[in-house]
């Protein structure tokens, strides 16, 4: 097993689940173009009874850390919380899952991040209201913690565009011989030149199709994965229910979805795919088998409410899925 550090956000997620009050309404301009969906026909000033409330812990950093721990790895979480009840809940969740939370920092004058997720059970559509709070900044975190931990892998999700902190941690990881898997967010992608500069230090890059197209030119997956492969040896590009494509410098695989199931909640699906891949790969499994596990892990998560409930342990027996090598 490996020692894996997860660097990213920690949030308390509050689910508001309903079967009829969050119906989407489509709004279009006078020419019936430029249409968009407005979530929920809710009257301003009204009180709306919902069917269910669920309190969970989310955030890309903690989601990944829990997957690594469930897989049996030595999992350490690095991130920020506030001195509040939500912060206590984050620590309790990590304790319960066997994640080392001794490197968690308390952000000064900021509460623990929180998301309110309004979910329509008929369609699975959702709207998320997020207060980043303690997870809005990461410049207080110390890259020397990596020197003390000596991890095999550093798994990094979005740091809200804090490119300086990313560079500090990436350079320290390379200095101590630690491999890096990076799943950037839109704030990192907005810093394109700095983002591309970081890729020289990355061993595995995980992005979705639209994110890939923000980094390199291209419209189809094969173009995007080939061009990103000029920067990073191992590249994984997801494409929702169309599956994914992945290249590790030697082989390229095109895969569909693991299983066509009713989707309850897509929260954490990307985190499950990325952390599932690394959890399996760091255990010594092949690139191909790790992609299959990643897809299965993501499928298991969207079948449940919350980003963590469906996370797999690696002991499950998996069935075959559409995957082929691209020559």
Give the fraction of residues assigned to helices: 25-40%
Shape: globular
Instruction: Measure the end-to-end span.
Output: 32 Å
Major beta sheet, strand line-up? 6-1-11-12-13-14-15-16-17
Query: Which CATH first-tier class would you pick?
Result: Alpha Beta
Overall number of domains: 1
Largest sheet: 9 strands, mixed
> What Rg do the Cα atoms give?
20 Å
Derived structural class: alpha/beta
The average pLDDT value, as a whole number, equals 93
Q: What is the succession of H and E elements?
A: EEEEEHEEHEEEHEHEHHEHHEEEHHE
CATH topology: UDP-N-acetylmuramoyl-L-alanine:D-glutamate ligase
Can you tell me the residue ranges where pLDDT is under 50 for at least 5 consecutive residues?
none
Number of helical elements:
10
CATH superfamily, called what?
Answer: Ribokinase
Give the beta-strand count. Answer: 17
| CATH architecture heading | 3-Layer(aba) Sandwich
Describe this structure as you would to a colleague:
This protein is of the alpha/beta class and 327 residues long. It has helices spanning 60-70, 85-97, 144-149, 163-175, 186-190, 192-199, 209-215, 221-228, 269-281, 287-302; strands at 3-7, 11-18, 24-27, 36-39, 52-58, 74-78, 80-81, 105-106, 113-120, 126-131, 153-156, 179-182, 204-208, 234-238, 244-247, 252-255, 323-326. A hairpin with a 4-residue loop joins strand 15 (244-247) and strand 16 (252-255). The longest helix has 16 residues, at 287-302. It starts with a strand and ends with a strand. The model has no long low-confidence stretch (mean pLDDT 93).
